Prior knowledge:
- Helix content is 6%, strand content 50%.
- By secondary structure, it is mainly beta.
Amino acid sequence: MNYMRLKNIQLGYSLPERLLEKVKITSFRVFGSTENLATITKYRGLDPEIQANRSNAYPLTKSYSVGVNVGF
Length: 72
């Protein structure tokens, strides 16, 4: 069985310190992540990774999160 899965992605950006000095912040980071974003397959079931009892298979839940870290 062939499939391609995009399971985890994390992206983040930290602002340069020279910009933060003006507002008296030591660090500022924005980030986002996702899990189980996409599965590309011709398989018609719920999860192509499940090899055992297919009646126990559940669909994968997608999750997204975003956040900000600020240091003073």
